[in-house]
Amino acid sequence: MRGQSDTKNRNTLQRRLVLETVQSMHNHPDAEAIYARISMENPLVSKATVYRNLKLLSKQGLILHIPIPDGADCFDFNCCPHYHLKCRGCGGVFDVDMPYQNDLCSCVVNNRGFVIDGYQIVFSGLCPECQ
Amino acid sequence: MRGQSDTKNRNTLQRRLVLETVQSMHNHPDAEAIYARISMENPLVSKATVYRNLKLLSKQGLILHIPIPDGADCFDFNCCPHYHLKCRGCGGVFDVDMPYQNDLCSCVVNNRGFVIDGYQIVFSGLCPECQ
DNA sequence: ATACATGCAAACACTTTGCAGCACA
DNA sequence: TGTGCTGCAAAGTGTTTGCATGTAT
Lengths: 131, 131
Known about the structure:
Two copies of one chain form a homodimer.
Chain A: H1 13-24, H2 31-41, H3 47-59, E1 64-66, E2 74-76, E3 83-87, E4 93-96, E5 115-126
Chain A binds a DNA duplex through helix 3.
């Protein structure tokens, strides 16, 4: 065997395309939207490949995966941890301007033996258009 | 039309069964688990009915609906707002002992015209068995 | 009596997977 | 030159819905 821990990933056109597309879209697109955008220029790229690469790129930390309760997961070019708001009307996902609470995990009084290593806050509300 | 706002709901056996089952299960069951439990005694109740009643009962505030990112939504007999932890190992959902932050919505610095009316925190980690 | 509720199955939305062929390293 | 990747289609998971029938009020 040849040592390293970095699982040797290949730099395919499709993978580059997925990364660049997410980085170019600043509106928290879901896999479907990313696929649609890619398909405009490259109709031969399959949806399964988009899903596979989204998962891989977010595992690599190159994009941020945002699991959305009651909806399709979406992805963010901005990898700094931050919070999101989901509009109850249109389902859109938006960034929330709120200082990130690094110590929130330590607010847990009694963890009963759990190891807590992260958390997610999703606010819900109505965007200006949906009010 | 006859006035009131309370949508006149019927007190069916199936609805009572769903409510009582959720109230008797204290481990954050999802719809599938609730359906399975009901089916043990009442195999004729259909899954669609379980889903329909879970939605209705949580809308009525009789049970708590917990949308889980990356997993089936689950339900809680405890309707007081509280936070949950999802184990990355077994997928189980557990209560978190942490004071509820009533004012968290007001921490949002700039809401850009959004009306924020709620939020959900889901912690992730590993339960004692999965460590 | 009549609207609301049910059971069933099919549809739905989102995501993953099996497999044969392709292409990056 | 071989293993990682792709495209396709099919399957998987969680949930909703159309419709005919049933039942609580």
